[in-house]
Design a protein that fits this description.
The chain has helices at about 135-145, 150, 175-185; strands at about 5-10, 20, 25, 30, 35-40, 40-45, 60-65, 70-75, 80-85, 105-110, 120, 125-130, 135, 160-165, 165-170, 200-204. By secondary structure, it is mainly beta. It has 3 domains: about 5-45, OB fold (Dihydrolipoamide Acetyltransferase, E2P) (Beta Barrel); about 60-130, OB fold (Dihydrolipoamide Acetyltransferase, E2P); about 135-204, Ribosomal Protein S8, Chain: A, domain 1, CATH 3.30.1370.
Length: about 200
């Protein structure tokens, strides 16, 4: 699947091309600076910015920077998410996870209102993780359209969570994690065949 670079754009510029519009485009306007790209009839902006524009149902990884009895505030890069303390798998008032400042947590966006989306960790596999690695957000969306992750998993064993706000969590041998992260960070949008087959990589 070939990525076609169309033109450089700046925030506020009208995107008049007809088709589906995704990362970096709100309505018909660019909201970040970068290169307008196309994959078939999907348009997005390839940018080095880490600013995240929240969307309902997105899986995100953020860092705790505030906590109180009722909720945590999570830094999602460019916006703050609100994570209620009871919004965890099987959590009760007497039995709930305790998150500390600077810890990473995997969440799902369940509501978007203003600049503070509501987050939740009630699905299995979500919650605190030991580390996360920053990558350019547009790459995460690309990996859902091509076989890049599937291809690098053919001769490597690892688990991965790809967060829409530009973070990945990896689990595996140290050298494998380093290798996979380097491949992800060096990815520049090369063409890759599209496949609907299940990925070999084990998702947490």
């Amino acid at each position: 699947m070939q990525v076609e670079a169309i033109k450089n754009v700046t925030p506020g510029e009208i995107i008049s091309e007809k088709g589906f519009k995704d990362y970096g485009i709100h309505g018909d306007k660019a909201v970040i600076a970068g290169t307008l790209c196309r994959i078939e009839d999907l348009y997005f902006i390839k940018s080095k910015t880490m600013i995240y524009l929240p969307r309902k149902y997105d899986i995100v990884i953020g860092k705790v920077f505030f906590s109180c009895a009722d909720y945590y505030k999570i830094d999602l890069c460019g916006c703050t998410g609100i994570l209620p303390t009871l919004s965890f798998w099987n959590a009760t008032k007497k039995n709930r996870p305790e998150l500390e400042r600077d810890q990473f947590v995997v969440c799902q966006v369940v509501r978007v209102e203003g600049n503070e989306p509501l987050l939740c960790c009630k699905k299995e596999g979500l919650g605190k993780v030991d580390e996360a690695f920053a990558v350019e957000s547009w790459k995460i969306r690309m990996f859902y359209f091509n076989d890049f992750i599937k291809n690098i998993a053919r001769n490597r064993t690892f688990k991965i969570i790809m967060a829409m706000n530009g973070f990945v969590w990896l689990d595996g041998e140290a050298e494998t994690k380093k290798d996979v992260l380097n491949l992800i960070r060096s990815y520049q949008g090369e063409s890759s065949s599209h496949s609907q087959s299940k990925m070999n990589v084990k998702d947490k």
